[in-house]
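Design a sequence for this backbone.
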């Protein structure tokens, strides 16, 4: 299973009601008038337990119908598109307790030296659980 974290965040916002609209529609309406407020709200939504549960349910639904050879790994990509709202390390810290019955592989757009660097520009937390898949 491959999950694009950015696309799933958009799907979550489009599925989440906010008054008469969805959160996605609400943020689009207010983005130009109140960009700082929308930015802050998006960051909160990105780590909201409802978004984490949304992803967890999507993975569980896949695992229930998948063939045995399809359930060993879940790949998550799209962290570059989701930046600055979703940071890889914080997402993993929040999602880790849900990982059961599969291995999670997160594709990270950056460099791994003595620390992980998003886009090769921004220093991120150096999680002890993170390893390079290819030693290049």
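Sequence:
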């Amino acid at each position: 299973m491959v999950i694009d974290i950015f696309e799933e965040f958009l799907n979550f916002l489009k599925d989440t009601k906010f008054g008469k609209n969805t959160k996605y529609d609400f943020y689009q309406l207010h983005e130009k008038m109140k960009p700082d407020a929308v930015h802050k709200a998006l960051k909160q939504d990105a780590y909201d337990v409802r978004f984490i549960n949304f992803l967890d349910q999507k993975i569980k639904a896949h695992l229930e119908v998948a063939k045995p050879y399809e359930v060993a790994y879940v790949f998550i990509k799209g962290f570059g598109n989701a930046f600055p709202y979703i940071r890889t390390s914080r997402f993993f810290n929040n999602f880790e307790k849900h990982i059961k019955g599969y291995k999670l592989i997160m594709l990270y757009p950056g460099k791994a030296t003595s620390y992980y660097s998003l886009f090769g520009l921004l220093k991120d937390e150096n999680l002890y659980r993170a390893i390079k898949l290819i030693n290049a």
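The helical segments are 5-15, 23-30, 35-46, 49-65, 79-82, 88-95.
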